[in-house]
Amino acid sequence: MSEPVASEPVIYLVRHGETRANQERRYEGRGDGDLTEKGLSQAQNAATALEGAGIRAVYSSPKRRALRTVHIIADRLGIVPVILDGLAEVDFGEWEGLTYEEISLRDPQRLQRWLADPLHGRPPGGESLTEMWSRVRRCMAEIVLAHSSTAAAHSGQGAVAVVSHGGPIRAILSYCEHGDLRGFWDTSISPGEIRAAEPKKGMIW
Question: Which of 82, 83, 90, 121 could form a disulfide with 114 if both were Cys (CB 3.0 to 4.6 A apart)?
Answer without folding.
Answer: 121
